[in-house]
Amino acid sequence: MLLNENRHVEKGCLMAQVSPTYGPHVVRLGRTAIPPQILYTDPNDPTYGYDDEPHVTLKYGFEPDLDRSHVARILQGMKPFNVVLKALNLFENDKYDVVKFEVETCPILTELRRRCDGYPNSDSYPDYKPHMTLAYVKKGSFPHKRNNLNIALPITRFKYSGPNEKYFINL
Predict the structure, then answer these.
(1) Which phi-psi region, left, alpha or beta, contains residue 110 (left: φ > 0; alpha: ψ -120 to 50)?
(2) What span, in angstroms and rounded, lies between the C-alpha atoms of 59 and 161?
(3) Closest by CA position to 56, among listed 141, 154, 133
(4) In terms of pTM, does the model score above 0.85?
(5) Best CA proximity match to 67, nearest among 169, 171, 165, 168
(6) Fewest Cβ atoms nearer than 10 Å: which of 11, 137, 142, 168?
(7) What are the tens digits of pLDDT across the range 100-149?
């Protein structure tokens, strides 16, 4: 799959955050599995390299920004839940590859994505492929793909990040 990604926060994004208890373990796993010499970096954009904030993106492209009341409506009735990491794989891009965990689609993520679709957005990815990015690496440099992982991680809060708004909402 070819990924065209806008690296700058020009539009809003809602993300399911891994519990702070488990997040550092995911970050450490990424840093152990992915040596620093294969990282893709850009001197003009510090957001490449390792991803230090484990999350599953629900929706990118909100415009205008969503305020807290909008996100509260999207999350209404939600309780903490688990996501299951099912494989370690790549998204390919013209300049770099994205090492990521594939996340098993679950009814909760599907419902939250459906709720997000009720707000104005310019999402250009009609097929939702939940994943958790570990790092951006040089093309062709990461050969370690794995299937059948079955690792459950708790989601206990959400982060909204946009051009003018940035906040967390706990479940």
Answers:
(1) alpha
(2) 11
(3) 133
(4) yes
(5) 165
(6) 168
(7) 999 999 999 999 999 999 999 998 887 899 999 999 999 999 999 999 99
Dig out the tokens for 33 from the structure. Answer: 């599995």
CA separation for the pair 24, 30 (Å, rounded): 10
What pLDDT shows up at residue 47? 87
Question: Measured between alpha carbons, how far is residue 39 from residues 8, 14, 134 in Å?
Answer: 19, 26, 11
- State which amino acid sits at residue 159: K
Lookup result for tokens 């989601």: 155
| Burial class of residue 60 (count of CB atoms within 10 Å of its CB; 0-12, 13-18, 19+) | buried
Q: Which residue has the tokens 């065209």?
A: 4
Q: What is the pLDDT of residue 8?
A: 52
Structure tokens, 112:
């939250």
Q: What amino acid occupies position 39?
A: L
Token look-up 């706990």 returns 170
User: Does the pLDDT at position 1 exceed 70?
Assistant: no
What is the rounded distance in angstroms from the CA atom of residue 82 to the CA atom of residue 127? 21
In tens, the pLDDT along 21-61 reads: 999 999 999 999 999 999 999 998 888 999 999 999 999 99
Q: HEC profile for 84-140? A: EEEEEEEEECCCEEEEEEEECCCHHHHHHHHHHCCCCECCCCCCCCCEEEEEEEECC
